[in-house]
Amino acid sequence: MKYILSVFVLLYAVFSFSQNSFKISGVVKDSISQASLISSTVYLERLKDSSMVSYSITDGKGFFEIEDYTNDSVLSFNVSYTGMKTYSRKLDIRTSPIDLGTIYLNPAADQLDEVTIQTDRSPIVIKKDTLEFNASSFKTRDGANLEELLEKLPGLKVDAEGNITVNGKPVQRILVN
Q1: 31 lies in which domain range?
Q2: What pLDDT was estimated at residue 18?
Q3: Which positions ≥6 away from 29 have C-beta within 8 Å?
Q4: 57 versus 1: which is more confidently predicted?
Q5: Which residue from 16, 96, 121, 168 puts its CA 20 to 30 A from 136's CA?
Q6: Is residue 119 very low, low, confident or very high in pLDDT (cuts 50, 70, 90)?
């Protein structure tokens, strides 16, 4: 009697902790070009905590096969590929083996909104032997003439005869745009 009870308890423990084995297969393709999506990630997650149960990568023909075991009877089946929307569905793995046939992934159409970049232009730009001054960086009164602007430019001097020097060096000509 003691041995029969021991065997019964052992069998009960084995069956109570048994796991469901499953086998899932299919092919992953692009919905537009019908091309096989090589190296797509195919994975199964638990519904209660999103922890991964098993995964696979598609081969050169887009084929995948996942064979594993778990205590869960329903899992979340997902397929992801860069530039495509993730495919997701619930699977009852008690009906294993499961052939999902061809799974078509749609392109992810994530478009950015319009972007406008505005920047302030540097007040002084040095190009080889030329200095460029951004006139709008130097405040003058409305309707001011060129002489008033020249007085505001740093390092630029205009003498009584109209000779112009920049940092003590004479300037041959000034171009105004």
Answers
A1: 21-105
A2: 54
A3: 35, 36, 37, 62, 102, 103, 104, 105
A4: 57
A5: 168
A6: confident
Looking at the fold, whether 27 and 62 belong to one and the same domain comes out as yes
Taking only the tens place, the pLDDT of each residue in 48-106 is 888 888 999 999 999 999 999 888 889 999 999 998 999 999 999 888 899 999 999 99
6 is a domain residue: no
Q: What DSSP letter does each residue of 75-104 carry, written as one string?
A: EEEEEE-TTBPPEEEEEEGGG-SEEEEEEE
131 and 98 in a common domain: no
Say how far residue 38 (Cα) sits from the centre of its chain: 20
pLDDT in tens, 146-176: 778 877 778 788 888 878 888 888 887 777 7
Q: How many domains, the chain?
A: 2
Claim to verify: residue 94 and residue 165 sit in the same structural domain: no
Other C-beta atoms lying within 10 Å of the C-beta of residue 152: 14
Residues in the chain: 177
Amino acid at 36: S
Q: Is residue 49 part of a domain?
A: yes
